Each structure stands twice: as C-alpha cells, then as structure tokens.
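Q: I have 198 residues here and want to know how they pack in 3D. Can you give me a structure?
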Amino acid sequence: MKKKAENQVVEEREGFVEGEGYPNCEGEPCANMADEAADGTDSVADETAEAEAPAQSVEQTDWRDKYIRLQAEFDNFRKRTLREKMALIESGGSDIIKAMLPVLDDMQRAIAASEKSDDIDALREGERLVTQKFIDTLRQKNVVEIEALDSEFNPDFHEAVARFAAGEEKRGKVIDVVQKGYKMGDKVLRYAKVVVGE
C-alpha cells in the first residue's frame, strides 16, 4: 500500500496521474498538446531524414555509376574475347592451309608428269613421295593415324562396321580396316572404320 502511494506521488510530481490524462486538461486542449508533442518529434525526424537524403542519394548515384561501368567493362570484355577467338580460329585454319600448299604443288607436278611419261614405276614412286610428304605434314600438326589392324577393338578409337567369323584367336580383334582413323593429340578427328572378328 505504501509503495502504491509513493508511485502516485512520483507520477503527480511529473504532472501525470494514471487514468486521468494530463493535469489541468479538459477535453480538446489535451489532445492539442499531444499533437504538438508528436509534431515536434516528427519535425526533428524529418530534418534528420532530409539531412541523410542527400548523402544517401550521392551514395546511390556512386553505386549506380560503378554498376553501369562494371557492366560496360564486362560487355567490352565479352566482345573482345569473342573477336580474339574468331581471329584464332581463322589464323589456325590459315596455318594448316599454308602447310598443305606444298603438298598440293607436288600433286599437281605429279599429275603433269604422268601425262608426259609412260614410266609406271617412276609415277608410282612419285605418288609414294607425295603421300609421304602429306603424312609428314600432318604429323607436324600433331595428326597421327590410329593403329587398328590386329589390335583389340577399342570403341574409343574404332567404329565397327561389320563382324566376321575369324576363329577363336581373332575374337574381339580388328581383322580389317575399311577406313583409316586419325587423331590430333588425344582428340579423335575421325574414328577408324573396322571389321571385328567374332
């Protein structure tokens, strides 16, 4: 009971009695005082928000500029790498063509020689030389023939086009090569078409 009385005294000193509202207020003036008090705190908050608004606006503008610049840089990077890839493909193709031109020259000389000569052995030797030069040119570009004949059938390098009964010792082995296969490094350019024994 004593505690309750002390609380009431403290509240009365502050000008407020619980359940009775503001002291010396009757009706509308009290409501106006509450509105004025609320308006005072709102005006301080508004001033603070207005002061922070330009700072936020500048920061947002900076971030927006950074984002737009970054997006433009990435777009330029993407276009540049695409151009570089296209140039690399074109130059890579021209490098192969340049390596093949001497072989074409030799083939044309062999055709011209075959029209003037009746020596079959010389023509055959010329064909062998041109073929060997072509194989050497491919080897310089890291293109090699896939070994197939008499080896175990390997689906990573061989394509079976037929099966043929060849006895127990030839079962699962390549007994004939229909079309030679080639690889560049570890990448298969063309699978060897083979006949497999069964």
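Q: Anything worth noting?
A: Residues 75-141 form a domain with the Hemagglutinin Ectodomain; Chain B fold (CATH 3.90.20.20). Confidence is low (pLDDT under 50) at residues 1-5, 9-24, 29-41.
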